[in-house]
Specification:
Order of helices and strands: HHHHHHHHHHHHHHHHH
CATH topology: Growth Hormone, Chain: A
Radius of gyration: 20 Å
Number of strands: 0
Shape: globular
Structural class: mainly alpha
CATH class: Mainly Alpha
Strand content: under 5%
Helix content: over 70%
Distance between the termini: 48 Å
CATH superfamily: MFS general substrate transporter like domains
Number of helices: 17
CATH architecture: Up-down Bundle
Length: about 375
């Protein structure tokens, strides 16, 4: 939350704020693919530990340059890109570990719990971040982030070794390993469809680059309002993720994904029509809840069609889609807002998301046909 807020306050440019997503995209793609290959050939706990240390260093550097004055936009782009790359490796390693900690029958509940707890931090983080920025500037937010990230180091140290199961003995090169993972994705049209529909939802319907623009320039709510808008999405997502027990009894998860993304687009479009902060935040919470249901279902689809030896690479592709989509959304929403207005950009993006869902359903009909029980049966060894 602090980084796009800092960019907008320094530049007053929605376009430059949105282009942060472009600066983050290259490192994110590269490190997600590399992290997936590494997670399928080494102890996933060790990979996660190394990555946590990198995240602490990068947050510390953002704090340092903020203390030294107003850093250039280029410096913020570079550090933001490196931070996005390190976060991508974290997501890959963490996602690849989860399936080996629970029985297959408990996978939906475990994935929902992990996603719900993650979203809870995304409620608390932006809310506290907004208060910290108001009290101590962005350097306060960066400093607290670096210090509290040490807790993740201790939690990772407490895990036992997390070696991938069934990994190839010949240890293919990193390049070949990545290529094998990408080829595996193409074997499942339902998996491809789940990736495509999330990219559509985020590229057109994720308006997070507009949150500081709207909070500062339209709602006149400053850093606190920016934090409210970020936190609203995650608040809805948290509640939805922690109440997804009903998904345990749902087999046609692809249909649930389609319905959830449609709800996301409608809620985002409605939020763009609101002239004040709290109605917009309420609709963003609805959007977050819909996205949470979609994310849990897509995670289940990903994990049930993937053998453990490939889970690092499939987690990398999943993470790549999940994290690159919002960056594309930053670029799209920031560009449209610079040409029109922030409210029009948000509403038009939500409507474009609805059109995109129709295109994905036509291109990947296997998504709507996906059956969880059948997928689990196929994955079981003969």
């Amino acid at each position: 939350m602090a980084l796009p807020y800092q960019l907008y306050v320094q530049t007053r440019s929605p376009l430059l704020t949105g282009l942060l997503g472009l600066a983050e995209l290259g490192p994110l793609v590269t490190m997600a693919l590399l992290g997936g290959a590494l997670a399928d050939r080494m102890d996933r706990r060790r990979l996660l530990l190394i990555d946590q240390l990198a995240l602490i260093v990068l947050s510390g550097l953002l704090c340092l340059v903020a203390f030294l004055g107003s850093p250039s936009v280029l410096v913020l782009y570079v550090l933001g890109g490196l931070l996005a790359g390190a976060a991508a490796v974290q997501n890959v390693a963490r996602s690849a570990i989860v399936p080996n900690l629970v029985e297959p029958a408990l996978m939906p509940q475990a994935l929902a719990l992990v996603f719900g707890l993650y979203q809870l931090t995304m409620v608390i983080g932006p809310g506290v971040g907004g208060l910290l920025i108001a009290a101590a500037g962005v350097k306060g937010a960066y400093g607290v982030d670096a210090l509290t990230s040490l807790a993740m180091v201790w939690s990772v140290i407490g895990l036992g070794p997390q070696l991938p199961q069934g990994a190839a003995a010949d240890r293919p090169s990193i390049r070949r390993s990545i290529a094998d993972g990408l080829r595996f994705v193409r074997t499942s049209q339902a998996l491809l469809g789940s990736f495509a529909i999330d990219l559509v939802a985020m590229a057109f319907g994720m308006p997070r680059a507009l949150f500081p623009v709207l909070a500062v320039g339209v709602y006149h709510a400053g850093a606190a309002g920016t934090g409210v808008m970020f936190a609203a999405v995650s608040a809805g997502a948290t509640i939805a993720a922690l109440t997804t027990g009903w998904l345990e009894h749902v087999r046609r998860l692809g249909m649930v994904v389609i319905a959830a993304v449609l709800a996301w687009g409608l809620a985002v479009a409605g939020a763009g029509l609101m002239a004040s902060l709290w109605p917009a935040a309420a609709l963003l919470a609805v959007a977050g809840a819909a996205d949470s249901v979609s994310a849990v279902c897509r995670s289940i689809i990903n994990q049930t069609v993937t053998p453990d030896a490939m889970r690092g690479r499939m987690s990398s592709v999943f993470s790549l889609v999940v994290t690159s989509g919002p960056r594309l959304g930053d670029i799209e929403s920031g560009t449209v807002a610079s040409l029109t207005s922030a409210r029009f950009s948000m509403s038009s993006g939500g409507l474009a998301c609805l059109v995109g869902v129709g295109v994905v359903c036509l291109a990947f009909p296997a998504l709507a046909r996906y059956d969880r029980e059948a997928a689990i049966t196929e994955l079981q060894p003969a």
